[in-house]
Amino acid sequence: MSQRIDYQQQSPELFRKLAAVNMAVNQSSIEKTTRHLVDILASQLNGCAFCLDMHVKEAVIDGERPLRLYHVPAWRESTLFNDRERAALLWTETLTRLPPHGVPDDVYELVREQFSEKELTDLTYAVMTVNAWNRINVAFRGVPGALDKAYGLDKAGLS
Fold first, then answer.
1. Max Cα separation, the chain?
2. Any idea what the Cα angle at residue 127 is, between residues 123 and 47, rounded to 5°?
3. Residue 51: which H helix or E strand, with range?
4. Which residues of 103-129 are buried (b: 16+ CB within 10 A; e: fewer)?
5. Quick one: average pLDDT of 9-31?
6. CA dihedral 95, 98, 99, 104 (to 10 degrees)
7. In Å, how far are 1, 3, 33, 126 from 89, measured between CA atoms?
8. What crossing angle do the helices spanning 105-112 and 83-96 adopt, rounded to 10°?
9. What is the structure's pLDDT at 131?
10. Of the four, 1, 35, 50, 96, which is 20 to 30 A from 41 by CA?
11. Model confidence at 61, in pLDDT bands (50, 70, 90)?
12. What is the pLDDT of residues 106-157, one digit of tens each?
């Protein structure tokens, strides 16, 4: 499969605005390790090979342990994630696959125990942003690894 159209070229202003939101999320109250887990899980759930490839490489570059990356799909059963990370993964899963009647109160309460109001808002923006990137890359078939050199992801040594 090849990429369908270059969405960056076709809508450069919208691309820049989404990238600016992404940069703001990266400067938010949510720690980098948690953001990587959120990005990886959402990308897996959405079937976005481009984003999954990119976020795994980013996590490796930032020193994430490979075993934790392997455990992301089984985060509920894994003992490798702390309570805050597990809450972030639950929030990611819930917002990525919105239940028919919205976010259940028990999920909200469990996640709220781990995050302040500001942090939960920032986490929600993180989930929203990765889902937006996933959707555009799934729609236009972003090619995994195609931008590794441009984004410095070749440093992960996973090509």
1. 44
2. 150
3. helix 49-61
4. eeeebeeebeebbeeebbebbbbbbeb
5. 97
6. 30
7. 30, 29, 12, 12
8. 150
9. 98
10. 1
11. very high
12. 999 999 999 999 999 999 999 999 999 999 999 999 999 988 899 999 999 9
Q: Residue 3 pLDDT more than 80?
A: no
Gap between the Cα atoms of 49 and 87, Å rounded: 24
The pair of structure tokens assigned to 57 is 């490489």
Q: Which residue has the tokens 């195609």?
A: 146
- pLDDT confidence of 4, banded at 50, 70, 90? confident
In which region does residue 123 sit, left (phi positive, over 0), alpha (psi from -120 to 50) or beta (all else)?
alpha
**Cβ-based neighbours of 137, under 8 Å, separated by 6 or more:** 48, 50, 51
Q: Which CATH entry fits the domain spanning 12-154: 3.30.420.40, 1.20.1290.10, 3.30.450.20, 3.40.50.300?
A: 1.20.1290.10
- For the record, the structure tokens of 144 come out as 């995994």
pLDDT of residue 1: 67
DSSP secondary structure letter of residue 144:
T
* Identity at 90, one-letter amino acid code: L
